[in-house]
Design a protein that fits this description.
- This protein is of the alpha+beta class.
- The protein has three helices and eleven strands.
- The protein has an eight-stranded antiparallel beta barrel with strand order 1-4-5-7-8-9-10-11.
- A hairpin with a 2-residue loop joins strand 8 and strand 9.
- The longest helix has 26 residues.
């Protein structure tokens, strides 16, 4: 009988202790999350363009995506991504303006998730062997608050035309800047007008990118 009472006492203690232990573990912050929170505070992210360090910045390909989307039969907007992108610019915080901004895309790096279709787009529509790069070069780029208005020239498929990039300035942290950009143009203006209007003429380019000081 004594053994039964002892067993019951131990079992009851375990039932009481278990939720306490589980709760304690639930409240514990994983070490990597705590480190991330500390590092984020140390970054001191700011949206003040005058806080940006002057000099040359290069595009960080690991934190960049360039996506194009266009309507298909007006039923959906399908997307394609470019996996090889590079770029640079010079920034002057006294003028809150960038100069020499250039973005270069390898048309052969187009990615729709279908390799056969990727090759068809690169070879038939982009004629990538003949026109091995798609480039955008700015003429003016100035940050006002959290917006950046960028005028420039798009060189695509052997045709050069002016376009406007509407850019949101995400901020600056230590040696890194972040931007989100969008531009819209007609592909037929650049000699890539096949299947219009079954596949829309208007193309929207979406850019998410970071630049790092050289």
């Amino acid at each position: 009988m004594t053994n039964c009472n002892a067993t019951a006492t131990i079992f009851t203690a375990l039932l009481i202790a278990a939720p306490i232990g589980i709760g304690a573990r639930a409240n514990q912050v994983p070490a990597e999350d705590a480190t991330a929170a500390t590092q984020y505070k140390l970054l001191k992210v700011t949206k003040d363009p005058k806080a940006i360090i002057a000099g040359e910045y290069k595009l960080d390909p690991h934190h960049t995506s360039v996506v194009a989307k266009l309507a298909h039969m007006d039923l959906s907007h399908y997307t394609l991504r470019f996996d090889s992108v590079s770029g640079r610019f010079e920034f002057d915080p006294t003028q809150t303006s960038a100069s020499g901004l250039e973005i270069s895309i390898d048309p052969k790096s187009v990615d729709t998730g279908d390799q056969a279709f990727d090759k068809k787009i690169a070879n038939r529509y982009f004629e990538a062997d003949k026109y091995p790069s798609i480039t955008f070069t700015s003429s003016t780029a100035k940050i006002t608050n959290d917006n950046m208005h960028v005028d420039g020239i798009l060189d695509f498929h052997g045709v050069k035309k002016p376009i406007v990039l509407n850019v949101t300035y995400r901020g600056f942290a230590q040696t890194r800047l972040g931007f989100s950009g969008e531009a819209t143009f007609k592909r037929s203006d650049f000699g890539v007008g096949e299947w219009v209007p079954l596949e829309a003429d208007e193309v929207t380019i979406l850019i998410e990118t970071e630049f790092v000081k050289s």
